[in-house]
Specification:
The chain has 330 residues and is of the alpha/beta class. It has 8 helices and 15 strands. Bound molecules: nicotinamide-adenine-dinucleotide. Pfam families: GFO_IDH_MocA, GFO_IDH_MocA_C3.
């Protein structure tokens, strides 16, 4: 018996990636939509056979509580809307999957965790890389110290973006900027590849195209310090392309390049091992794993606490940049 998923927000990611992915899943399927754009409704209903009873807008979304076809709401909205709509979904008694970054700040993340705990539903963050096979291999290298102790991590995620200045990704109050959008990938990667939590961070944020990224970062550089002396050099950008996770160890090295793409994630190691790209649909695998965790009542791969830890680091990065790159304790 498949779980029914309602996508909340029908923008780029829902339309082009998640809805097609939900045609390939074994443990869940697309059964509902929540949208503020009436013109999208007939298109989605026809394409995916969604009945009138499972179509909602943002004002009626709470009524999903009465819909037994829907088990999960997947929040795929601008970042500043994640907390509000996750909480509406939780209070409707539905499991919540929420896209990265989890929310704007730690307080919002806590409110989301509280709402899901109070309602006895799961809260899972859309950290698709943690479900990707080559990523899981290098996580195991870290746990088993296959190449020795990790001594340094370098990771960057970015692309040449061309947002309109009023696009939410360029608007500070909506969670715009490269750090919220792309920075969470290297931050999350530093944590999953080392299995450790950083203790301090310093950072610098700036924009070159001030006409577009006037009040949020086009670029962020940051350094994380871990308890055993491990350091991580992170970068993210809306200005130039980058997509690497490089890990140095006491007895060798390994890397994933690219490390955050939807497909083609590829690895290499100091002893010549090649981690060939996995051909599967990354998001279908993520959603199946997350559906299985609900069905089996087990902990999801990336629970809300995972998102909260990264958002705490995001906030410290912004604080450090405002203080001219001062080290911030975490
Ligand atoms: P998008 O701009 O294409 O879509 C956003 C949707 O929200 C649109 O359908 C828009 O109509 C709707 N919306 C509702 N209220 C809005 C408002 N007040 N202002 C603007 N839009 C509003 O964005 P997207 O690329 O689909 O991203 C959505 C979320 O998914 C973000 O949190 C993003 O970080 C995340 N995402 C994750 C991945 C991933 O690989 N995990 C990839 C892309 C996006």
């Amino acid at each position: 018996e498949k779980l029914g998923v309602a996508l909340v927000g029908l923008g780029y990611y829902s339309t082009n990636i998640l809805a097609p992915g939900l045609q390939q899943t074994e443990h869940c399927e697309l059964r509902g939509i929540v949208t503020g754009s009436p013109e999208k409704i007939p298109v989605w209903q026809e394409k995916y056979g969604i009945p009138d009873a499972s179509v909602y807008n943002y004002e009626t979304m709470h009524e999903i509580a009465n819909n037994d076809d829907i088990d999960v709401v997947y929040i795929v909205l601008p970042n500043n809307m994640h907390a509000e709509y996750s909480i509406i979904g939780a209070n409707a008694g539905k499991h919540v999957w929420c896209e990265k970054p989890m929310a704007m700040n730690v307080e919002e993340c806590r409110a989301m965790i509280d709402a899901t705990e109070k309602n006895g539903v799961q809260l899972t963050i859309g950290y698709r890389m943690q479900h990707e096979p080559n990523t899981q291999t290098i996580i195991k290298y870290g746990e088993e110290e296959t190449y020795g102790r990790i001594t340094a991590i370098r990771s960057g995620g970015g692309f040449r973006a061309n947002h309109e200045p009023d696009n939410w990704r360029a608007v500070k109050e909506m969670g715009g900027g490269a750090l919220y959008d792309m920075g969470v990938y290297p931050i999350n990667a530093a944590r999953y590849s080392s299995g450790m939590e950083p203790v301090a961070v310093r950072a610098k944020q700036w924009s070159v195209r001030e006409d577009i990224y006037s009040d949020c970062d086009e670029y962020t550089d940051f350094d994380l310090e871990f308890p055993n002396g491990l350091t991580m050099e992170g970068k993210c950008s809306f200005g130039n392309g980058m997509n690497y996770l490089d890990i140095d160890c006491s007895d060798g090295w390994y890397r994933l390049r690219p490390f955050l793409s939807y497909s083609g994630v590829r690895g290499a190691t100091s002893d010549g091992t090649i981690l060939a790209p996995d051909p599967g649909h990354q998001q279908a695998r993520q959603m199946d794993n997350d559906a299985l965790a609900i069905k089996n009542g087990t902990n999801p791969t990336a629970p809300g606490e995972e998102g909260l830890r990264d958002v705490r680091i995001v906030q410290a990065i912004m604080d450090s940049s405002r203080l001219d790159g001062q080290w911030m304790q975490l």
